[in-house]
Write a structure and sequence with these properties.
By secondary structure, the protein is mainly beta. The protein has one helix at residues 46-49, and strands spanning 3-11, 14-25, 28-35, 38-42.
Length: 53
């Protein structure tokens, strides 16, 4: 389930575009974003997983 998408971010008034993926490892899903050639992984914490929103 490695879904690729383009992540668009506005930072200091400049629009930046990054190649990103939604990936899974076991039961954990996380985002991997390529920032200037460096793969950066973002995954939820247990607290975020139980947040009411």
């Amino acid at each position: 389930m490695d879904e690729r998408f383009l992540l668009e971010v506005i930072y200091k008034g400049e629009q930046l575009k990054y190649d990103a993926q939604l990936r899974s490892r076991g039961y954990v899903h996380y985002y991997e974003v390529d920032i200037d050639g460096i793969p950066v992984q973002f995954e939820p914490t247990k607290k975020a997983a139980t947040a009411p929103w």
